[in-house]
Automatic annotation (TrEMBL):
UniProtKB keywords: GTP-binding, Isomerase, Nucleotide-binding, Nucleotidyltransferase, Transferase
EC number in record: 2.7.7.13
Superkingdom of origin: Bacteria
Domain MannoseP isomerase/GMP-like beta-helix stretches: 299-353
Enzymatic class: transferase
InterPro entries per UniProt: GMPP_N, Man1P_GuaTrfase/Man6P_Isoase, Man6P_isomerase-2_C, ManC/GMP-like_b-helix, Mannose-6P_isomerase_type2, NTP_transferase_dom, Nucleotide-diphossugar_trans, RmlC-like_jellyroll
GO molecular function, one term: mannose-1-phosphate guanylyltransferase (GTP) activity
Pathway note: Nucleotide-sugar biosynthesis; GDP-alpha-D-mannose biosynthesis; GDP-alpha-D-mannose from alpha-D-mannose 1-phosphate (GTP route): step 1/1
Organism listed in the record: Thiothrix litoralis
UniProt record similarity statement: Belongs to the mannose-6-phosphate isomerase type 2 family.
Protein name stated in the entry: mannose-1-phosphate guanylyltransferase
Amino acid sequence: MATPITPVILSGGSGSRLWPVSRKLRPKQFLPLISEDRTLFQSTLERLDGLVDKQPAIVVCNEEHRFMVAEQLQGIDQANQGILLEPVGRNTAPAVAVAALCLLDKTGQDPVMLVLPADHVISDVTAFQQAIVQACSLAEDGYLVTFGITPLSPETGYGYIEQGAPITGFDNAWQVATFAEKPTVETASAYLAGGKHLWNSGIFMFKASTFLHELETHRPEILEACKKSFKQAQHDMDFIRLDAASFHACPSDSIDYAVMEHTRHAATVPLNAGWNDVGAWSAVWEVSERDAANNVLRGNVMTHDAGNNLVFTEDRLVTLVGVDDLIVIETKDATLVAHKSKAQDVKRIVTALEAEGRSEAIIHRLVNRPWGCYDSVDAGERFQVKRITVKPGAKLSLQKHHHRAEHWIVVKGTAEVTCDDKIFLLTENQSTYIPLGSVHRLANPGKVPLELVEVQSGSYLGEDDIVRLEDQYGRNEA
C-alpha cells in the first residue's frame, strides 16, 4: 500500500502587491482573482481531486483568517484534518513543522506531506498530478522534494534551483546542486542559457518524520519552539490554536533557508504545468482570459482604442480611452492606477498606507464576519451607516455599546432582535431602536439572508466599542 499523501495548505500570505483588492484581513488567497466562482485557496484544493491515496488536507493560516478558511472549505465540500491557527507569522519552516507534528499526533502514521502555497495558479492539472506521483516515490525513499519550474524567461523575481546529477532508479528526478537567490537580469539570462536551473516554485513533498529530522539537525531551536506551541495548543472544533507565547518565541525562517539549503537529501522534480505564483497584477493579466485587444476586464468596464490593460471594478463604471499597458483596480474605497511594468511596486503604496495608519491597507469597506458581512455605506461626525447581511441561521454576539445607539431597518428577510429583556421579530420595512448601553443581539431565524440598514449615532463609533457578553464564534475582537 502506498504511503498516504496529505496536502498541507499554507495560507498565511498578505498579497500586498495585489492591493487594493487584496488586504491584510482578506488577502489574495481568499479572493476569486482568476475564476469568478473559486478563490485561489479553493482552486488549490480542488486541483488535487482524483489523486490516489490523497487524505483530507491540513491548513495553516493566520488566526484572523480562520472563519474564511472554514467557510471556503465548506463552500467546496472539502473535509480537513485540522486548521492550525498561527498567532503571528513565522514563515514557512515553522508552519510546516507544526503541520507535521499535528499529522503524526493525529494519525499515528507517517504521511507524505504535499506542501502547497494557497495562492498559486496551475493550468495543467494532469501534468501537476503526474509530477506529484513522481515526487511521492522520492519522498517515500527519504528525499525532500522541491518542484522546479522550467524557466520561460530570465525572471528576476524568483529563486532558482540548480539541477545536479540524475537520481538513479527514479524517472525525471535530480539531486539539487545549489539554491540561488533572486538573481540579476544578467545572471538569470545565464541560468536560462545554461539549461540547468529551474524556478523555485515553493511547493515541496516529504514524509513528516523526514522533515522534522532535518529540521532538528539544522534548526533545532525552531523545532523546539514548535513542539512547545503545539503541545500547549487549544482545540476548538476544527481549529487548533497554537500557544501564542511559544510561537512568538519561534525564529522566523523559510523551508529553503532552514532545511533545503543544508540537507544532503534534497531532490527536484521539474514541473511543467502552467504554474504562476500570481505575485502581482501583471501576473493576473498573464493567466487570465483576454479580449481581442488583449485586455482583461472584469466588472463595469468600457474601453475604446485601448489594449493590453487589466481593469477590475467592484462598484463604479470605469472607462479607458487610448491607453495601453495599464492596471486599473477600483474598489469601494480605493482606486489603483499603475503601469503594468511597475506592478511589483504596488507594495510600496501599501507600506506607505501602513506607515500612516490608514485602514485601506488592512480592511475593505465590505467586512466579512462569521455570521455574514457589513458594508460601511456612509460616515460623518457622530454618525455611521452600514448595510448588514446575516446568513440564514446565524446570529451576532450578545453585546452592548458604551458610546453609541443604533437604528435597525429590515430591507429583506426576518430579524430576531434581542434588546434587554425583550425578544421580538422584525420583517421587511419594519425598524427598531437600540438605546446606548442596551444589551442586544441580532439573529436570522429564516431560510434566506437577512439584509438591514443600520444607522449608528454617538460620540464614538469604532468597532472596538463592543462589549461581548456571549459569542458562539469564540471571538474577543470586533
